């Protein structure tokens, strides 16, 4: 699973950096390196671009994993050039941007847009498999999510537009509910196709989302 990102337009990045003459650039060695949006090559390209705009680059680094404890270590190792910068330009996913912002008082500027959490089906090809809705139905749809897989997000399908197992919206794409049907048939659970799923209540998991997992030392009532 990877955070799938794309670089913001250079015009947008330039607007974000308006008023900042000194910039520190930070990339990620995991997801954005794989998607070629924030690895070493992309960080150096951004450095060259900003220097062409007469920005002073106080330094740059690529954190092995920008969203975990390595962030704090990297920030401490590069404390001086980060402090000398007016802002930190982050070429990582939104989680990495948030993490970095907790370790510096400098403005933290995202250079990327985070699109979705994706599964790599083949080299360089990622597909969204979960929107993290908080109301999982995979147990009744043979492990195929109709919310993320179906272009219409139908919980009760297929729609009337499917043709020869292909999606009405994208004729190159397999119909999600046809895939669900075939897998349920293989499992001998076609009766689940007749089950009605009520509309999702997206307020079930209010934002910002949080969860507390009890430790093994705690009792069910939360006491130690």
Would you give an account of this structure?
With 224 residues, the protein is of the alpha/beta class. It has 8 helices and 7 strands. The chain has helices spanning 10-16, 31-34, 40-52, 70-77, 79-83, 94-101, 146-149, 176-187, and strands at 2-7, 22-28, 56-63, 87-91, 108-110, 112-122, 125-128. Helix 6 (94-101) links the parallel strand 4 and strand 5 (108-110). It is elongated, with a radius of gyration of 22 Å. The mean pLDDT is 86.
Record the SSE blueprint.
Elements: E1 2-7, H1 10-16, E2 22-28, H2 31-34, H3 40-52, E3 56-63, H4 70-77, H5 79-83, E4 87-91, H6 94-101, E5 108-110, E6 112-122, E7 125-128, H7 146-149, H8 176-187
Parallel strand pairs: 2-3, 2-4, 4-5
Antiparallel strand pairs: 1-6, 6-7
**Through-space gap between termini:** 35 Å
The figure for the number of domains is 2
Briefly note the CATH topology name of the largest domain: Rossmann fold
Ranges where pLDDT stays below 50 over 5 or more residues in a row are none
Characterize the overall form.
elongated
Helix/strand-derived category reads alpha/beta
Highest CATH level, the class of the largest domain: Alpha Beta
Strand content: 15-25%
What's the helix-strand series?
Answer: EHEHHEHHEHEEEHH
Question: Architecture of the largest domain, according to CATH?
Answer: 3-Layer(aba) Sandwich
Give a count of the beta strands, DSSP E runs of length 2 or more: 7
| Number of helices, counting only DSSP H or I runs of 4 residues or more | 8
Largest sheet: 4 strands, parallel
Strand order of the largest sheet: 3-2-4-5
Query: What is the multimeric organization of the chains shown?
Result: single chain
Gyration radius (Cα, Å) is: 22 Å
